Amino acid sequence: MQKIILASQSPRRKQLLQWAEQPFDVIISETDESYNTGDSFSNIAIHIARNKARAVLEKTGTSLPILAADTIVICNNLIIGKPKDNNEAIDFLKQLSGNTHSVITGVVILQGNNEKYFADETRVTFHELSNDQINFYVEKYKPYDKAGAYAIQEWIGVVGIKKIEGDFYNVMGLPVSRAIKLLHEFFS
């Protein structure tokens, strides 16, 4: 496959593209992550991903396809972002405990004026988590860079998740099989 630009500093997205054996370079640019609160959750994720891709295109002028993604977590019809501190991480996990939430990743691939995009949704249900489990996870894993204050591939996913409906890798931050399929359309 041809090389692409990954417009993300997420170690999880890098890992997924490496597993898919997709050659890439990482280039990031400061991006406005504001959005219209009246948009659908899918459109919000796509909008932020599009801004990331466009910022890298403006910065570099590259002719390579740029892949950008943004993942949001929705519980009780509210977006749960990245926690700013220990207390907020604990609060977020208490909201997710015993509940089902959605993880939506918007993916945008941009090459010049050619743009393709999609959003993928996965439903995740947590078991009831004890305060000790939540405190242990936050203290040990410090999930401050993760939407919803957790990573499915870490300890909390192994012991805390009851059910998942949809793409596991979407919850990690990139529905990689759909992204690779979309990239093939650019290369064919």
Write the layout of secondary structure elements.
Elements: E1 4-6, H1 11-19, E2 24-26, H2 41-60, E3 66-75, E4 78-80, H3 86-96, E5 100-111, E6 114-126, H4 131-141, H5 155-160, E7 161-165, H6 168-172, H7 176-187
Parallel strand pairs: 1-2, 1-3
Antiparallel strand pairs: 3-4, 3-5, 5-6, 6-7
Helix pairs in contact: 3-4
Distance between the termini: 10 Å
Please count the helical segments.
7
Low-confidence stretches: none
CATH class: Alpha Beta
Cα radius of gyration in angstroms: 17 Å
CATH 2nd-level architecture: Alpha-Beta Complex
Q: Could you say what the CATH topology is called?
A: Maf protein
Class from secondary-structure proportions: alpha/beta
Largest sheet: 7 strands, mixed
- Beta-strand content estimate: 25-35%
Shape: elongated
**Element pattern in H and E:** EHEHEEHEEHHEHH
Report helical residue fraction. 25-40%
Number of strands: 7
Mean pLDDT equals: 95
Domain count, please report it.
1
Structural description of this entry:
It is elongated and about 50 Å long. Strands 1, 2, 3, 4, 5, 6 and 7 form a seven-stranded mixed sheet that branches. Helix content is 39%, strand content 26%. It has one domain (4-187): Alpha-Beta Complex (Maf protein), CATH 3.90.950.10. The protein is α/β, with parallel strands linked by helices. The protein has helices spanning 11-19, 41-60, 86-96, 131-141, 155-160, 168-172, 176-187, and strands spanning 4-6, 24-26, 66-75, 78-80, 100-111, 114-126, 161-165. It contains seven helices and seven strands, in the order E-H-E-H-E-E-H-E-E-H-H-E-H-H. The termini are close together. The mean pLDDT is 95.
